Amino acid sequence: MLLKDKTIVLGVSGGIAAYKALDLTSRLIKAGAEVKVIMTRSAAEFVTPLSFQSLSKNAVASDMFEEPKVWEIRHISLAKAADVFAVVPATANIIGKIASGIADDMLSTTIMATKAPKLIAPAMNTNMFENPIVQSNINKLGSLDGYHFVMPESGRLACGDTGRGKLADIGVIFDEIMRLALRDKADLRGKKVLVSAGATSEPIDPVRFITNHSTGKMGFSIAKAAYLRGADVTLVSGRSTCEPINGIKTVNIFTAEEMHKAMTVLSKDADIIIMSAAVADFRPEFEAEHKIKKGSDEKLSLSLVRNPDILSELGRQYGGRKVIIGFAMETRALIESAMKKCAEKNADFIVANNLKTEGAGFGTDTNVASVIEKDGTVTEYPKMEKFKLANIILDKAVDILSK
Ligand code: PMT
């Protein structure tokens, strides 16, 4: 319930993507937010106010001159209540009105009166979106304090055209609202967080490689949690099934050596370094130039050589000066092995997970972890969402930074 006690005023303007704002409403409600919806008259032609009312459990505002249930000036009270004011989807018309200071209906009037951060997610036909007037309105608003945009994607539009103008993914819009709503709790603002995620892959020949089952879910959750807490986040990612996260710089790598290079350069500026990637300890000594053929041999031997231990190197270089967090992935003797890794790799703490524990490790949305600190303190956590564990890890990092 990250958005408990937060009020999101959601302005819905009239476009075919208006129905997607229903999904957004329901996600915001699930995250604990109070959602108050304002619809323009044309939005109500696409989706009924009753749908938003049923999901948000709040009356939908659209008419400026409707008799108020409680005596209050409705647009002013909504403007004041907002922790974030989102306009999803935003048509060329509403963007134009906001940019020109026109306040002639409930939505435009309330936006004009709010001091909350405003998030605008445009959606419209490509030619409209590319129209220099629309672009100039977007640029004008984007240059002002308090106006944020989640830009549309390219794709096939409802009108049949293909191009830019499709409403951004609702998950991306939701994350951006969350980031703005939690800005007062942004305890990592001004901090640089470097996270590694996913699996490294070690080529054998142009066709084959050695890898592991990491999906990147743990590392991406940490990166996203840090971003929502205001950090400037860089993610170094190996093979992963996760979608890129809006607002996070992502460096994609393939091998452990590439991850080593990227982490070495990027760690110079970082305040917090978190190695959650599953890095191959060994790689084939030689990568064959051509596909290895079966031939008549029954056996094939691969000679493997050690990869650099990235965490150990960073721990040696920055231990005590930056916050260094490692993981330990084990199948037995979890705590003993993690304690050894914490000391050997000079980490502030190690997050240990046992692949044999149900709901822990690779590919799951949950993890079951123990945190082993360098003074030997061990804290065991029950099964929880990786995103929640990510926040526990970051709480500890913030604690260390403050000391
Ligand atoms: O990606 P998911 O599917 O969500 O799965 C999550 C996870 C299981 C990958 C994650 O929770 C996890 O345990 N990551 C660490 C995996 C790992 O490589 O553990 P390890 O015990 O082998 O390594 C110990 C630490 O040293 C790790 O922080 C690792 O990133 C680091 N390391 C390891 C080898 C190496 N050559 N260089 C390193 O920096």
TrEMBL record:
Q: Which GO terms describe its biological process?
A: coenzyme A biosynthetic process; pantothenate catabolic process
Could you name the Gene Ontology cellular component terms for this entry?
A: phosphopantothenoylcysteine decarboxylase complex
Stretches for region Phosphopantothenoylcysteine decarboxylase: 1-192
Segments forming domain DNA/pantothenate metabolism flavoprotein C-terminal: 188-398
Using the UniProt annotation, give all residue ranges assigned to the region (Phosphopantothenate--cysteine ligase): 193-403
Keywords linked to the UniProt accession: Decarboxylase, Flavoprotein, FMN, Ligase, Lyase, Magnesium, Metal-binding, Multifunctional enzyme
Catalytic activity of the protein: (R)-4'-phosphopantothenate + L-cysteine + CTP = N-[(R)-4-phosphopantothenoyl]-L-cysteine + CMP + diphosphate + H(+); N-[(R)-4-phosphopantothenoyl]-L-cysteine + H(+) = (R)-4'-phosphopantetheine + CO2
What does the record give as cofactor?
Mg(2+); FMN
Domain named Flavoprotein: residues: 6-175
Family that this chain belongs to: In the N-terminal section; belongs to the HFCD (homo-oligomeric flavin containing Cys decarboxylase) superfamily.
Q: What is this protein called?
A: Coenzyme A biosynthesis bifunctional protein CoaBC
The record lists the organism as Candidatus Monoglobus merdigallinarum
What is the gene called? coaBC
